[in-house]
Amino acid sequence: GTEFKNPTTEKSSMNFLISLTSEKWQARLAEAYKSYYGKDWENTGEFDNISYEWIYNFLMNCTFVSKDSTIAADVANGAAGSAGLFVFSKLRSVDATNMTVVANDGIEGFAGLMYPIYSMVAANAKYPYTACLYINYLLSPEGYGNIFGSQMGTYSVNTSIGISDNAKSYGDQPLSFWQDCLVFEDAEQVQNVYFEASDKITQWCAAKQ
Question: Per the structure, how many domains does the chain have?
Answer without folding.
Answer: 2
